[in-house]
Amino acid sequence: MKTNPYADPTTEKRQAYDAATAMLAKQDEDLLRYAALELRRCMEAIVYAKLEVYGDLLPEGSVHQWQPPQAFEALIAIEPDAEATLTYAVAPQKEFAKIAEGPYRVVGVDERPNSKWLKKTWQKLGFYLHAKWPFSRSATPTSSVRPFLEKTLADLAPLVNNNFSAMMSMNQAFTCAGCGATVKVLEKAIESSHEAVVCLTCGMPFRVEKSDGGFTFFPDEPPFTCDCGASTFVPSRPIKVGYRFSCRSCKQQFQIVGLDWKYAVVADDAEVSESQEG
Length: 278
Hints:
By secondary structure, this protein is α+β, with helices and mostly antiparallel strands.
């Protein structure tokens, strides 16, 4: 898919990292909040730079609406090895279809972030961007955030200093039964993962079966259909009564109101309209 020609995450991650470095070097406590903001921006740019490599696998219709957490999740959903730092090397091939014996020459090292650390750190940085809660029971001043920011800066250094990213794999494509979007996935992701393949547009999972050298994709769970006609996947396992979700098309909000899979239109933040059978 095409990317914004005016967006350069590789340059932006360096700019944000350098800005945070300069602020922390000034030993000014009033600048720590701004340093946290720049570190957060740096982390987002790192993920966006990695996602650019998988451009053809990103859903054209919805990727432009993603927020950072969605981008973080997509990075792992696209490729199970997305968290593993990989070294790429080449050597002359003497025989067709036979792995070269070497010697190998390193082309580059693809430094990749850990997803859990990425999301946890990004959220913690966001905590320091808010005003202090005046109704806290503790009157004890909170400790300085500087040690955490300095450690985050050090942890990000390898990801900022290394711009090499690569992806080599055959792709498979199928039409999502939930939203109709074309879903493209890596063959190695299908073969190495025991979990369902997920449509990154609506979130619907698919069970994969391999036969006769090909792959067949079966919907794992039925989608929710809104009154507007659009289908949206609602996961059954992590939700509970009160869970809210939105139609991917018209953005109407719904809420789970019973264990017998009833749902209701969310009229506003205070009340829910009469429930309907799901």
